[in-house]
Amino acid sequence: MLQNIRIAVDAVVFGYQHGELYVLLIKQKFGTEEAYWALPGGLVLNDEALIDAVKRELKEETNVEVNYLEQLYTFGDDINRDSRNRVISVAYFVLIDSSKTLIKADTDADNVQWFAIKEVPQLAFDHKLILNTALARLKAKLTYQPIGFDLLPEEFLFSELENLYCTILEKEIDRRNFRKKILSFGIVEETDRFSEKKGGRPAKFFKFNKKKYKQLDKEGFHFEIRFA
Amino acid sequence: MLQNIRIAVDAVVFGYQHGELYVLLIKQKFGTEEAYWALPGGLVLNDEALIDAVKRELKEETNVEVNYLEQLYTFGDDINRDSRNRVISVAYFVLIDSSKTLIKADTDADNVQWFAIKEVPQLAFDHKLILNTALARLKAKLTYQPIGFDLLPEEFLFSELENLYCTILEKEIDRRNFRKKILSFGIVEETDRFSEKKGGRPAKFFKFNKKKYKQLDKEGFHFEIRFA
DNA sequence: TATATTTGTGTATTAATTACGCTTATAGAT
DNA sequence: ATCTATAAGCGTAATTAATACACAAATATA
């Protein structure tokens, strides 16, 4: 009997704004059934690399500019995760700087939307499971890889970085120790720009030196942010 | 155009014996071409979960008893990784206690064999890439999850555990600090059995308390073995 | 009984983490 | 101009963890 299994890719795209973690969803219309929100994704073309399939779908459906992308997990244990056919989904984990991404000028914006992670609606298929898997990956990786920077603008304030960690990890941090530790790595540099926010001492903008990080990483350096 | 992509699973099965890391390979015969050694695996059945497919293939081809199994990575970026058809492979990472596994009494043993990791022959398809990915995973995970125990017999000597770490990570360790650290976790317990090896002070056998580890893990404990 | 071999243990030094509070620069109100 | 509120920036002492390092104990064999 010939194999009759389809292969799709789906992307969990995280963004961070106004002190909140967001995920990007699209409105999935299938048949006459109720429209569910779903992760962006779709079937892989015959002559298309998996990674190109995700990139294509992201471009077509949402037009986001990707800062970080890696394979997350392949979902294929539940035979009926898609009720129409057997579909195996290779899920990807994506981080973007949502401040610079204008979602989809070209498609109707109603169908693509950011949802605060605490306010995600019911999702199609097993997409909730995929999202939860991605969230676990995000939390884990944040502590041992400098991926937090991929959720922020190129130049950011320490308070923003700190809030990002607190928010996503749902933990309190000592502001001073956090700053000290990050700076001790030598992968974050201060700029000469200052925040123009009112009502307090102006804050310096900083930026992440990715090149420096990659070099240190090669030399055996371990990034790690962990809190009691 | 209909999707025409096949989906397979492959397993990288690691074992550890006589102070060496081994990988399990099978002889792949296809057509009249030269037989290559390859990772155990094969196509997924239409109504079969991915994980069941790996387990089935492992059972059919090698008959090993699995101690640890997790999804490794899905290889589907190289369109031509299999020259016959487009095949996407979901690779799995498997650890076994090779001392208790008798490989394949039922199939001809010539076709299933352990290879020391330094002596792996040329492999079929992109299996070398898959193996390297698994090896990287093994090295990384050894430092932050107690998976070394899944390569050892239920009861083991400290010297064996220590050698396993040294061998796989290709690093020297201070014997005393290593022991102190492992014991400080409280997840390894001494038994009352002693080694009967000759020529030195007899060594106590220890065993890993998995239940205890899982509990500590839930409480926020972090296993970590890292060396300068 | 002496020698070789492997296991088992302790401590001092150094480095990293944690806990903690005051000063500075700005905006806005008076 | 002065006062108040707000957030940023900085330093140090106390605690905890990691590292470096050497000798004693138990066995087998000569």
Task: Describe the fold and architecture.
- 2 copies of one chain form a homodimer.
- Chain A has 2 domains: 6-144, Nucleoside Triphosphate Pyrophosphohydrolase; 154-218, Arc Repressor Mutant, subunit A (Orthogonal Bundle).
- In chain A, a hairpin with a 2-residue loop joins strand 1 (6-17) and strand 2 (20-28).
- Helix content of chain A is 27%, strand content 28%.
- With 228 residues, chain A is α+β, with helices and mostly antiparallel strands.
- The relative contact order of chain A is 0.15.
- The first copy, chain A, has helices at 50-61, 127-144, 158-169, 175-185, 210-218, and strands spanning 6-17, 20-28, 36-38, 41-43, 68-75, 87-95, 112-116, 155-157, 188-194, 204-208.
- Chain A starts with 5 loop residues before the first strand and ends in a 10-residue tail after the last helix.
- The model of chain A has no long low-confidence stretch (mean pLDDT 93).
- Chain A is elongated, with a radius of gyration of 19 Å.
- In chain A, strands 1, 2, 3, 4, 5, 6 and 7 form a 7-stranded mixed sheet that branches.
- The A-B interface holds A 1, 3-7, 43-52, 71, 73-74, 76-79, 86, 88, 90, 222, 226 and B 1, 3-7, 43-52, 71, 73-74, 76-79, 86, 88, 90, 222, 226.
- The structure holds a DNA duplex (30 and 30 nucleotides).
- Chains A, B: This is NUDIX hydrolase.
- Chains A, B: Keywords: Hydrolase.
Highest CATH level, the class of the largest domain in chain A: Alpha Beta
First-last Cα distance of chain A: 55 Å
Radius of gyration of chain A: 19 Å
Domain unit count of chain A: 2
Largest sheet of chain A: 7 strands, mixed
CATH superfamily of the largest domain in chain A: Nucleoside Triphosphate Pyrophosphohydrolase
| Total E-strand runs of chain A | 10
Task: Output the number of helix runs of chain A.
Answer: 5
Structural class of chain A: alpha+beta
Q: What's the CATH topology name of the largest domain in chain A?
A: Nucleoside Triphosphate Pyrophosphohydrolase
Largest interface: A-B, 28 and 28 residues
The best one-word shape of chain A is: elongated
Average pLDDT number of chain A? 93
In the predicted model, the low-confidence regions of chain A spanning at least 5 consecutive residues are none
What's the architecture of the largest domain in chain A in CATH terms?
A: Alpha-Beta Complex
Quote the beta fraction of chain A.
25-35%
Oligomer: homodimer
Order of helices and strands of chain A: EEEEHEEEHEHHEEH
InterPro entries (chains A, B): NUDIX_hydrolase-like_dom_sf, NUDIX_hydrolase_CS, NUDIX_hydrolase_dom, WH-like_DNA-bd_sf, WH_DNA-bd_sf, WHD_NrtR
GO molecular function (chains A, B): hydrolase activity
Protein name (chains A, B): NUDIX hydrolase
Pfam families (chains A, B): NUDIX, WHD_NrtR
